[in-house]
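Notebook entry, structure prediction.
Reason for the run: the old model in the group folder had no record of what sequence produced it. Starting over properly, with the input documented here first.
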Amino acid sequence: MAMVVLAALIPILMLAAVLALGRYEELMLSEPGDDRLEPAALPTAAVSPAPAGTPAPSP
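New structure, fully documented this time:
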């Protein structure tokens, strides 16, 4: 039973280690002025149209 658990846990633990090392590498090699936390697009204040169920005004 222990061998089955070990055989199932080793690949999962190795994947976690590779992902953690990748994140560590990105953290260590990033530029000091890197703007990773800046949003990709600035939000715009657009006026939304009326909902689809709104009836047209009567003439």
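Summary: The chain is about 45% helix and 0% strand.
The old model has been moved to the deprecated folder.
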